[in-house]
Amino acid sequence: AQSVAQPEDQVNVAEGNPLTVKCTYSVSGNPYLFWYVQYPNRGLQFLLKYITGDNLVKGSYGFEAEFNKSQTSFHLKKPSALVSDSALYFCAVRDQEDDKIIFGKGTRLHILP
Amino acid sequence: AAGVIQSPRHLIKEKRETATLKCYPIPRHDTVYWYQQGPGQDPQFLISFYEKMQSDKGSIPDRFSAQQFSDYHSELNMSSLELGDSALYFCASSWRTSGPASRETQYFGPGTRLLVL
Predict the structure, then answer these.
(1) Minimum Cα–Cα distance from A33: chain B residue
(2) Distance of alpha carbon A64 from its chain centroid, rounded?
(3) Which of A5, B30, B54, B77 is the most buried if burial means most Cβ atoms within 10 Å?
């Protein structure tokens, strides 16, 4: 069975500092991995994905994520945080044979001015 | 760029009533997915359709049904509403017909917030 774990409910980072939001996954086959962001009272916005190829994936708004197969991780990173990055971030996994996306519980990111 | 459109954006119903949520996918997208996000929860997959046929099924209650129409829009019909159905309902769409690799990114709409009183 597929699963995603986001070990931190909340992450606080000072503006201008690098940020990391952690994610680990478990799938039976090769994974499709995603990060989505949700702002208050808004839908889920796609940030980036890993399908195959380079382990470092670059996405929207300066975010990137590193796929690590041996550690089954897909941590989200950004070199310099902005206050506007404050939101709820979901890591998600999709098995190649399934339609559904399995989401983690979400990590609330607070960027402190 | 055009996004997924959902209507209505907000809906208030009484217990035991019915509700219909509509989803209009991104133009040229042929696959539609429905998710339910309860308060403080992660989104849970309900059901999906590809080319008007049910493609996958998740934790959708028997009281709910859905379909995809010839213009690719989809409707989620919810009957005998319960208090626990209060949630944010997302529709997402993707484009599958270019091959397996296209089944990659689901683009989500803004959601319909349903409140059952």
Answers:
(1) B104
(2) 9
(3) B30
